[in-house]
Amino acid sequence: MSTAALLSATGLHKSFGPTEALRGASLCVQAGEVVAVMGPSGSGKSTLLHCLAGIVQPDAGATYYQGRRLTDLTDAERTALRRTDFGFVFQFGQLVPELTCVENVALPLRLGGLRRREAERAALAAMARLEVDDLAPKRPGDVSGGQGQRVAVARALVTEPKVIFADEPTGALDSLNGERVLRLLVSAATEHGTAVVLVTHEPRVAAYSTREVIVRDGRTTEQVVA
Amino acid sequence: MSVGHTLLGLLESGPRHGYDLKRDYDAKFGHDRPLHYGQVYSTLARLLRNGLVSERGTEAGGGPERKSYAITDAGVSDVEQWLATPEKPEIYLQNTLYTKVVLALLSGRSAQQVLDTQRSAHLAAMRTLTARKAGGDLADVLICDHALFHLEADLRWLELTAARIDELAERVRS
């Protein structure tokens, strides 16, 4: 494993039943860089992201975060790590419909034990960076898709994570809204030195990255020496 | 792009000297390829000859004489017709990249490598354009968007070809 890497994976294998999703995938992410993970549908991109984030346990291979092997952590330790050090942005259905937008953004801080007032103050600051602070009292059902996605990005950033995992974050948006979400996501992450792992099959989305890694048939174009 | 029609279009907002026309053109359309003065004056001479512009007097100053040009009714009709005529869609059949892929397959080299190398070059160009959009005005954004969509179309072809590479290999080797 590279000592300079913030996050790395080597030789990941993962099967779901008879389907081999990953067949020796490797990836290395440095602090502050934006890495696009590209590849056709079914190539294993999302499974790789889930393994990197410790959401899914690989059948073989290892993932390291800040020198710690994720597979050696307990479930509770991995959950805590995801709450404090990782942020997530997905394509659909991330916001809790019963909560207001500011409550949604404050949620990771509240789960971390922060008092409501402090959590919502930090949430509003994150929402302002994403230009959605005016939506604070609204519920997700009352905002547009692009606005909701920016609220989701604010929630991913509110804990000031070291890594943001974004899986097709603009897949459900039109070009203009997608561009706005990406621009704000990447600039906010870069401002804080946050690394972004950006899963996408769209070249225009990948163009916001600093480099790309291709996943094909469960393998990556990147070789990482264990 | 038709420089003549573009200059005519710029003149629709009012008479202009050749120098001002060049400045307008460069600011709005000449991001990568500003007009040469010679091209401006030769184009204006042609438009004048064809009755699409007329001279509106000459200013004599400290420097060379400055002729002012105005668009004529015939010029306005010409611009209207140009705007209403669709551009021919650009279709690149049998392009260099296709040739490289087939030759790689025929010679037993890695066609996938050809595609990967090209993808990387395309993405690098797209990153440059995306960065330029971030620091540019709306005109920059629109120009870069156009280029980005064209590069993306190439990349979609690359991905589809990558998905069909085994089938293509069988065909070209049979």
From TrEMBL, chain A:
Residues 7-226 form the ABC transporter domain. Coiled coil: none annotated. GO terms for molecular function: ATP binding; ATP hydrolysis activity; transmembrane transporter activity. SMART domains: AAA (SM00382). SUPFAM superfamilies: P-loop containing nucleoside triphosphate hydrolases (SSF52540). The keyword Protein transport does not apply. Gene3D superfamilies: P-loop containing nucleotide triphosphate hydrolases. Keywords: ATP-binding, Nucleotide-binding, Transport. Pfam families: ABC_tran. One of its GO terms (cellular component) is plasma membrane. InterPro entries: AAA+_ATPase (IPR003593), ABC_transporter-like_ATP-bd (IPR003439), ABC_transpr_LolD-like (IPR015854), MacB-like_ATP-bd (IPR017911), P-loop_NTPase (IPR027417). This is Putative ABC transport system ATP-binding protein. It comes from Prauserella shujinwangii. The lineage of its organism: Bacteria, Bacillati, Actinomycetota, Actinomycetes, Pseudonocardiales.
Automatic annotation (TrEMBL), chain B:
Pfam families: PadR. Gene3D superfamilies: Winged helix-like DNA-binding domain superfamily/Winged helix DNA-binding domain. InterPro entries: Tscrpt_reg_PadR_N, WH-like_DNA-bd_sf, WH_DNA-bd_sf. Residues 7-78 form the Transcription regulator PadR N-terminal domain. PANTHER family: NEGATIVE TRANSCRIPTION REGULATOR PADR, TRANSCRIPTIONAL REGULATOR YQJI. This is PadR family transcriptional regulator. The lineage of its organism: Bacteria, Bacillati, Actinomycetota, Actinomycetes, Pseudonocardiales.
